[in-house]
Structures are given as structure tokens and as C-alpha cells.
Write a structure and sequence with these properties.
- Helices cover 22% and strands 43% of the residues.
- The protein is an alpha+beta fold.
- It has a six-stranded antiparallel sheet, sandwiched between helices.
- The longest helix is centred in the middle third of the chain and has 17 residues.
- It is globular, with a radius of gyration of 15 Å.
């Protein structure tokens, strides 16, 4: 974590709102095109510098629960990602499917992350599932490539 690496970590809520489902979200979250989903956008900081931009989508009821949990973390001044929010809910997130890739950031993300458009970023796209394989979150997380390192350990 950031605190272990000597950085003072914090998280802010950029935006939380209900949005209509598009075809991609309908397929990923296994919901109808007539449904709405909850969009939660967070910004993670290290020493008050933006280093990760989270953009998550949840089925509506779960999204409200996640927003409430995020607000609790902010009030307590505790850093968090959406994975931490599951501890404050009755949602048992048991598995995650992730893709890691390098991208150049868009104008919108560049402004939020305080970098130039086109800056190299690491993007992690995740789908979180419950034990019964029901998708409960679709998230993209964009990390500053020069500030973040991933370490994975896998059992074979």
C-alpha cells in the first residue's frame, strides 16, 4: 500500500450518480438495457498528489451502499479503494477478473490527474464477482505509471 511505501494516502469522491446502462455495461453487469447503474468516481492521492483515478459502475442498489461506505471512509479520513468498501456492506465479493495495460491518458483524466494529455498510464480493468459468479462491479483504475508499481503473487 501507499502508506507502507512512505506516502501519505488519501481518497476523495469526485462524483457519484445514477446513469443509464449502455450496451457494454449491460453485458458486463448482466443487466437490462432499460436499467440504470450507479457510477462512483474516486481519486486516490499519495502525499496529496493524484496517483490513481477510479471509475466504477455498480448495479443500482449496490451502488447506493458503496456510496454510503465511501462517505464513511472520507469522514474518517481513511484512504480506500472500492475493494475496501465491500467490508462495509453485506456484499461478498469473492473473485475479480482483471486486465492490465498501458495507455495514454485522455484530456479528461489528464486534467483530473494533473498531468499532460497523452501521459503514460497503467490501466487496470476489473470485474468483481460474488461467490455465485454474479458481477457486482465494473471498474477502470488509471494509475500514474511513474508513481505506481504492482506486485502479484499467484498460487498455481
Amino acid at each position: 500500500t501507499l502508506q507502507i511505501s512512505g506516502l501519505s494516502a488519501s481518497t476523495s469522491i469526485l462524483e457519484s450518480k445514477v446513469v443509464p446502462v449502455n450496451l457494454q455495461l449491460s453485458n458486463i453487469l448482466d443487466c437490462s438495457l432499460q436499467d440504470q447503474v450507479y457510477n462512483l468516481r474516486l481519486l486516490g492521492y499519495g502525499n496529496e498528489e493524484p496517483i490513481v483515478y477510479y471509475n466504477s459502475y455498480f448495479p443500482l442498489a449496490i451502488g447506493y451502499t458503496m456510496r454510503e461506505a465511501a462517505q464513511k471512509y472520507v469522514e474518517l479520513k481513511k484512504p480506500f479503494s472500492t475493494y475496501d468498501l465491500y467490508a462495509y456492506s453485506d456484499i461478498a465479493a469473492d473473485a475479480v477478473d482483471q486486465t492490465f495495460e498501458a495507455v495514454n491518458c485522455t484530456q479528461e483524466v489528464a486534467k483530473t490527474m494533473k498531468v499532460r494529455e497523452g501521459t503514460a498510464m497503467l490501466i487496470v480493468t476489473s470485474v468483481v464477482y460474488t461467490g455465485d459468479s454474479k458481477p457486482v462491479e465494473f471498474k477502470t483504475a488509471m494509475y500514474k505509471a511513474d508513481k505506481y508499481k504492482f506486485h502479484l503473487k499467484r498460487n498455481m
